[in-house]
Specification:
Helix content: 55-70%
Order of helices and strands: HH
Distance between the termini: 47 Å
Largest sheet: none
Structural class: mainly alpha
Number of helices: 2
Strand content: under 5%
Shape: elongated
Length: 86
């Protein structure tokens, strides 16, 4: 029987060490990820709505509109960075 040095695999071979995920653990992990995503999207939508209302309102001051526009710019940059993964 030949021994293989796992720190230097030969050409054409790849060494992968991973643990098996129990189906119950997978379901719990997916529920957590989906819950976190939905919570983040809800917060994002609320902040977006508030900023749009501030910008559209005729009773808000110029300083408040500048604040809302800077938040909208930050949110736009964040979502663009998240979608492009750079």
């Amino acid at each position: 029987m030949t021994q293989v040095d796992l720190s230097k695999p030969t050409d054409g071979y790849k060494v992968i060490i991973q643990t098996e995920e129990h189906p119950h653990d997978r379901i719990v992990r997916l529920i957590k990820e989906v819950s976190l995503f939905i919570g983040a999207m809800t917060c994002f939508a609320i902040i977006l709505f508030i900023c749009f209302e501030v910008v559209r309102s005729t009773t808000t001051s110029g300083e408040e509109k500048k604040w809302a526009m800077s938040v909208l710019t930050g949110l736009t940059g964040a979502i663009t960075g998240y979608l492009l993964k750079k």
